[in-house]
Write a structure and sequence with these properties.
54 residues; three-stranded antiparallel β-sheet; 3 strands
Amino acid sequence: MHLYRTTDGFIIKNKDEYRLVDESAEWDDFINRDDLRKFIEKEWNKAKNPCLLG
């Protein structure tokens, strides 16, 4: 998994799929977690919207 910060929010890439997640969160609060991997997986599952890049 990869996590990106964009002007539209945070994008998680998992394999060849992208999802936009929780654009209201602060970047530092989002990434500075002891359980970051588990948290990102949880956010991935909550984000039902595929993100179309282009």
